[in-house]
UniProtKB/TrEMBL annotation:
Keyword Nucleotidyltransferase: no
Main EC class the enzyme belongs to: oxidoreductase
Record Gene3D superfamilies: Cytochrome P450
Catalytic activity, EC: 1.14.-.-
UniProt xrefs under CDD domains: CYP107-like
Family statement: Belongs to the cytochrome P450 family.
Gene Ontology molecular function terms on file: oxidoreductase activity
Protein name from the UniProt record: Cytochrome P450 107B1
InterPro entries registered for this protein in UniProt: Cyt_P450, Cyt_P450_B, Cyt_P450_CS, Cyt_P450_sf
């Protein structure tokens, strides 16, 4: 049993130490125990799962609900979303989840995703052409603008509205410290905007995900209006920020391993395997969505009481030596059993798109510049100061 588990009132493990050194801190927690009783930074009690086997089982456990109506406590950490934007897959359990997921999966066809390949390549090439070296910030110049354009094309957000859309999104994902009011305003504007785009799609449907969802709602009445708006919001919420950080983290994996970079350039190692190993080694979505125990649930060393909130650390599970030999080593030849896209009924629906974006972006970057190296030391890299995600604020490189 971990120390944290034996004390009555516990301090939060989701602390500055975890933000400053996630992998080192998780390594210590993982060795101590698979499950830890702790608290959110707001002081709400919670359970943190750190080992692979327990994490994978928990992600697929139907006794752990994503629906926050099942929370025992009223305060829901970091969840200030209004219901108009929050009635979506990551806040639902079967059978509602099954109904909605089926609809989204229908609209999110492999054909629609594959159809984006040429566009993603073109958008990437345009961004690369405008990059002038020798020093470039890859996050700013490539990792951020590419997924934003892709998500807008996928949803069918008109070109004219994209600047506003991007500004609200940036406020929501990267709020300045203490900018709660700006976030609330951005959320309200985003809500109004999504409603108006949906109305437009209703009147003149186009070939995109939003039109497909609108049609599903109107033809068969299987989707409520809040569900429709929330799904649009979820696609943005789940698809944008994570994709940004997957591109940044993949580029970083190569910059930190110059011999691997040469091997990928020469075709000896496929870029696909580098993306896959990055998903294990430095997963963008570091902490899965919180879950609530519907009954007393025994996991690993812990008996988690009904109503408790449970967080699964994907970042920790992905570096568990019980599943991945020499877990600290970046090895693109591994079998990809990582949990970066989740596991079970909530497995990420955008995984093929995310992989495609990162592969195209980083491969094209390597082709564009015959030399690429980090422009700052490893310790000078700036990560977003949060335990929820693992993403770079900037990635300065020297190019030529
Ligand atoms: C690198 C990029 C991405 C990562 C690491 C990622 C990660 C994840 C993870 C871990 C989950 C499961 C959450 C949980 O069970 O707690 C998830 C769910 C989901 N993701 Fe992604 N995601 C990425 C990109 C995308 C993209 C591009 C889209 C859409 C455009 C997307 C849409 C979704 C949706 C709709 C769900 C909810 C599925 C459900 O509940 O049935 N994701 N994602």
């Amino acid at each position: 049993m971990s120390n944290t588990e034996q004390t009555g009132s516990v301090s939060s493990l989701l602390s500055e130490a975890l933000v400053a050194d996630p992998h080192g801190t998780y390594a210590r927690l993982r060795e101590a125990a698979p499950v830890h009783r702790t608290a959110t930074p707001d002081g709400e009690p919670m359970w943190l799962i750190t080992r692979y086997a327990e994490a994978r089982a928990a992600l697929a456990d139907p006794r752990l609900s994503l629906n926050k109506a099942n929370a025992k406590t009223s305060g829901e950490y970091r969840s200030s979303m209004p219901p108009e934007l929050d009635t979506h897959l990551l806040n639902m359990d079967p059978p509602d989840h099954t109904r909605l997921r089926r609809l989204v999966a229908k609209a999110f066809t492999p054909r629609r995703v594959e159809g984006l390949r040429m566009r993603i390549q073109k958008l990437t090439d345009e961004l690369l052409t405008t990059m002038t070296g020798p020093r470039v910030d890859l996050v700013h110049a490539l990792a951020v603008p590419l997924p934003m354009s892709v998500i807008c094309e996928l949803l069918g957000i008109p070109e004219t509205a994209r600047l506003d859309f991007r500004a609200w999104t940036d406020t929501l994902f990267s709020p300045a410290p203490g900018a709660a009011t700006e976030s609330r305003t951005a959320m309200r504007q985003m809500h109004q905007f999504l409603k108006s785009v949906i109305e437009e799609k209703r009147n003149s449907p186009t070939e995109d995900l939003l039109s497909a969802l609108v049609q599903a709602r109107d033809d068969r009445d299987v989707l409520t209006e809040p569900e429709l708006v929330s799904l649009a919001f979820l696609t943005l919420f789940a698809g944008y920020d994570n994709a940004v950080h997957l591109i940044g983290n993949t580029a970083l994996s190569l910059l930190l391993h110059p011999r691997l970079l040469t091997a990928v350039r020469g075709g000896a190692v496929p870029i696909r395997s580098v993306v896959e190993e990055t998903l294990r080694w430095n997963p963008p979505f570091a902490l899965a969505v919180r879950r609530f125990a519907l009954e007393d649930v025994s996991i690993g060393n812990a008996l988690i009481p009904a109503g408790s909130r449970v967080w699964v650390s994907i970042a920790s599970a992905n570096r568990d030596g019980r599943e991945f030999p020499s877990p600290e080593v970046f090895d693109p030849t591994r079998t990809p059993t990582h949990l970066a896209f989740g596991y079970g009924v909530h497995y990420c629906i955008g995984a093929p798109l995310a992989r495609m974006e990162a592969e195209i972006a980083v491969w094209s970057l390597m082709k564009r510049f015959s030399e690429l190296e980090l422009a700052v030391g490893l310790n000078e890299l700036e990560w977003w100061p949060t335990f929820h995600k693992r993403g770079l604020r900037s990635l300065p490189v020297m190019t030529c």
